[in-house]
Amino acid sequence: MGCNKSLPVQVQARVTSQSEVYRRRPVQKKTSLITKEMGSLSNHFEILSAMGSTSTGTLLYARDLRSGTLRTIREVCKTITSDYSSLFLEVTILSELDHPNILKVYQTIETNRSYYIVMESADGGNIQDRILKSGNEYLVSKFMHDVFSAINYMHIKGIIHCDLHIGNLLLSNQTSDAIPKITGFSSSQKSSDIQEIDLALLNYQYISPDMLDGTVNEKTDIWSLGIILYKLLVGKLPFVSKNKKEILEAIYKGDLDFEDPNFVSLSHNAKDFLQKLLVRECFSRLSAKDALNHVWLQQSIKDVGLTYQIVQKLRRFKMKTSVVRSVLSFLNFKLDFKEHEIIGLFKKMDVNHDGNIGKAEMIDSFKSIGIDCANEMDSIMNNLDMDQSGSLDFTELKIVLINWDKEIKKKLLGKVFEANDGAIDYEAFKHQLHDILPSEWTEFAKRLRVENNRISLPRLKEYLKTNIVF
Fold first, then answer.
1. C-alpha to C-alpha distance for 350 and 347, rounded to whole angstroms
2. How far apart are CA 76 and CA 466, in angstroms?
3. Can you name the residues that pair with 107 across neighbouring β-strands?
4. Please, what are the domains in the chain?
5. pLDDT tens across 362-401, in order?
6. pLDDT above 80: residue 3
7. Quick check: 90 and 188 in contact, CB under 8 A?
8. Cβ neighbours of residue 312 closer than 8 Å, sequence gap 6 or more
9. What residues contact 10, with CB distance under 8 A and at least 6 apart?
10. Contact, 103 vs 170, CB < 8 A?
11. Smallest Cα–Cα separation from 183: which of 251, 111, 117?
12. Cβ(408)–Cβ(441) under 8 Å?
């Protein structure tokens, strides 16, 4: 049941106190929150309801006035906290992540009294709410495969979550196609620059033994995922006691309840997987990458076939100008296009689970349906890889596979870019798009015959469709 270790008194105090923290590095540096918008929240969103409250303010459910898309907005009141370092770090970290199972942050708004963090809507409740009974191994495996995929991606990017628990695993919607979204990044760390963490702010039942030892690494997240998985499968946490002090002692010793009847009744593969996640010594735990290859997680992978039509679209697709690339990125950012099938395809092609599709993975994916495009892959990747990173992230694949011929309409463009009398303000349009050279704007204005600082909606629609090869 575990080794004979005792939880040091000073560790217990750190987990209980609201002011004490452990340190591996000096106090974290102040970072800048790049505010995208200033002014009243009501200028941008219609507040539909209050979803609840957090330690820093209210959680709001809102509709974007421009696009009509639904968003979750987290308020951070300036009167409640004056130390925004963890908030700034959280937003910075999330702005660097692009994975279908990580909750996206779209916008920040600063007012005189608050910061508002605008996130994608995830109104399906947490994972536990969807599991109708303990022991539903297939459904739990399906959800947890997605979660481990996102954690592996984060670890490759050098990000450690540090506060994974069931409440931070939300479902995207209330349908049967819902996917998990990881949230709650306020304690996240960059592995290259570990900063202080206030253990009292974490959910103590999911804290790893290494955190109680005063260290943080990628395996910290693996332990927390093991606790989550145990609760989902067994229906309770893996501790005999319900007393906080005794639970912390059990965590520190690695003394978990593997004799509960509901645990014993699990499949052999489920028990094996859990026991390889919940190892006290962090270096002996599975990594996220190794976990994804475990037979228990593999059982729920749905075989999403790459079709000839999709391959042909990937081969043909091209955005001829920087303005087109920027407009499509902005439309994808502002609107909720259907992505369920694209997510499945992305994970099918991302063979090594690193959250990107590399050139070799593209070649192998094409070969899987009998198409050899090795000689033209450099050209294909150049067209699809918008940031020229050498691989495709999820957003880049999604932009390629959206049916733009159907989606690009005057009504949609007018809504997103706030048209008035059939035209868009040219300067406002330019302000919302990025990475476009002055010479390209000059050519764009000439092509669309911009007059009196106005862009005609019909001309913009025609320009976009003419400069996208579908």
1. 5
2. 44
3. 118
4. 31-120 (3.30.200.20), 127-298 (1.10.510.10), 308-469 (1.10.238.10)
5. 999 999 999 999 999 999 999 999 989 999 999 999 999 9
6. no
7. yes
8. none
9. none
10. yes
11. 117
12. no
Going from the C-alpha of 330 to that of each of 151, 182, 335, the distances in angstroms are: 27, 23, 9
> Buried b / exposed e across 89-118, counting CB within 10 Å, b at 16+?
bbbbbbeebbbbbbbbbbbbbbbeebbbbb
Is the CB of residue 457 less than 8 Å from the CB of residue 413?
yes
3-class SS at 369? coil
User: What's the token pair of residue 34?
Assistant: 């790049």
The answer to whether 178 touches 122, Cβ cutoff 8 Å, is no
Q: What is the pLDDT of residues 210-236, one digit of tens each?
A: 999 999 999 999 999 999 999 999 999
Least confident span in 148-157, 238-247, 296-305, 343-352:
296-305
% of the chain with per-residue pLDDT over 90: 68
| 41 neighbors 56 (Cβ within 8 angstroms) | no
Confidence band (pLDDT; 50, 70, 90) for 33? very low
pLDDT for res 32: 33
Cβ(140)–Cβ(232) below 8 Å: yes
pTM of the model: 0.87
State the Cα–Cα distance between residues 42 and 379, nearest whole angstrom: 45
- Cα 75 to Cα 55: distance, rounded to the nearest angstrom: 10
Other beta carbons less than 10 A from residue 38's beta carbon: 11
Between the CA atoms of 100, 50, 161 and 182, what dihedral angle is there, to the nearest 10 degrees? -20
User: Would you state the structure tokens that stand for residue 250, as one six-digit string?
Assistant: 């059990």
39/24 Cα distance (integer angstroms): 38
